[in-house]
Design goal:
By secondary structure, the chain is an alpha+beta fold. Helices cover 41% and strands 13% of the residues. The chain is built from eleven helices and nine strands. It has helices spanning 8-18, 66-76, 114-117, 122-141, 158-173, 179-191, 234-244, 251-254, 271-282, 289-312, 327-341, and strands spanning 25-32, 38-44, 48-53, 86-90, 100-104, 199-201, 210-213, 219-223, 230-232. Helix 4 packs across helix 9 (271-282), helix 6 (179-191) runs antiparallel to helix 10 (289-312) and helix 7 packs across helix 10 (289-312). The chain is globular, with a radius of gyration of 20 Å.
Length: 342
């Protein structure tokens, strides 16, 4: 069976030479794809591993950097931050057509929706959302110099560079001009806070970028999807996480097809409670949180526009992208409202 983005004979030959302890590779199947990097389950005779590669088609500069993901999970493996076991990296594009890496398979679930979560007791759901905040605080507590990530980014001027970087991504991806986008960029530039002390940041932290279990106790087993990680302002991570947060009764947010509705499950912390729990776990001042949530909406609007552009080019693997472009002006409008209120 043909698997998009994988040349199985070349991959299996490479694994036989470079990952001999996995045993004979048997099959490859797509786990997820379309919005971001593509993820595959590789069944081998001795163990299961997971392969990550960039999306098909045009890839924006600095985006979907496999070596970056590989480096950060390798650095975090001995720390309290839960990550998959790093297995092997391949920078030779002749193997499958792009750089990729292999990591150990984690027996956990990536959950986006209430249906996928099932029907746990509210206290279990609450504890899961508390753990989500605590693991984010743990990421930000890592001494990045000590784990070998001292040159992983340039912490100084992080917010200004992020605004510029995502603005450049917008210009490369945009499918139409939106005056409210331009006005938002100006407002964010004018309102930019000095920033918090720099830490490792994940760059796209939300529940479905983790692998979880509910029994015997709710736990985050691994944080995945580190493609946008860098050194910078930890509150930017928190702001983006809350951008994904859906609250009961927010029909506008429910219409944005990213991150799902898991956060409205009974017992789940609401956005304010999650922010407060993070502040308690991390000891950080979150007084400027409104700016960071507005910035998160801006960043997500650019990401969604990139997905929309790839869909229009026929280069998106997966289903459900037909209407994603309509979320872009909605996210921009939400960012303006947050700035008005904060």
């Amino acid at each position: 069976m043909t698997v998009p983005g994988i040349d199985q004979p070349r991959l299996f030959a490479w694994m036989a030479e470079n990952v001999p302890d996995a045993g004979e590779p048997l099959s490859a199947s797509l786990i997820s794809g379309g919005k971001s990097n593509l993820t595959y389950l590789i069944e081998a005779r001795e163990r299961r591993v997971v392969l990550r590669r960039p999306p098909l088609g045009h890839v924006l500069p600095t985006a979907h950097d496999m070596r970056r993901e590989w480096r950060v999970i390798s650095a975090l493996a001995p720390t309290p931050v839960p990550v998959p076991d790093p297995v092997a990296f391949c920078g030779d594009e002749d193997v499958i057509g792009a750089p990729f890496y292999l990591m150990g398979h984690v027996e956990g679930a990536a959950v986006r929706t209430r249906a996928e979560l099932g029907d746990p007791a509210p206290e279990e759901t609450r504890r899961l959302s508390e753990r989500l905040a605590e693991v984010l605080a743990a990421i930000h507590a890592v001494d990045y110099r000590e784990v070998g990530l001292g040159d992983f980014g340039r912490p100084e001027g992080y917010l200004a560079r992020q605004l510029q970087r995502w603005g450049q991504q917008w210009e490369r991806s945009k499918t139409e001009d939106l005056p409210e986008y331009d006005r938002l960029v100006g407002r964010l530039r004018d309102r930019m806070p000095p920033g918090s002390a720099s830490t490792l940041v994940h760059g796209d932290y939300r529940l479905d970028n983790t692998l979880i279990r509910l029994t015997p106790a709710p736990e985050i087993l691994a944080v995945v999807d580190w493609e946008m990680s860098t050194l910078g302002d930890p509150l930017a991570d928190l702001g983006l996480t809350l951008t994904y947060w859906q609250e009961a009764g927010d029909e506008e947010r429910a219409g944005i097809p990213v991150a799902g509705d898991v956060t409205v499950a009974p017992g789940f912390l609401n956005a304010a409670e999650f922010a407060a729990h993070y502040a308690k776990a991390s000891g950080r001042d979150i007084a400027d949180l409104g700016f960071y949530v507005a910035f998160g909406n801006f960043k997500l609007a650019v990401i969604v526009e990139g997905i929309h552009a790839r869909f229009r080019q026929g280069k998106t693997v997966g289903d459900g992208f037909e209407h994603i472009g309509s979320a872009v002006p909605t996210l921009i409008a939400r960012a303006h409202r947050i700035l008005d209120q904060s």
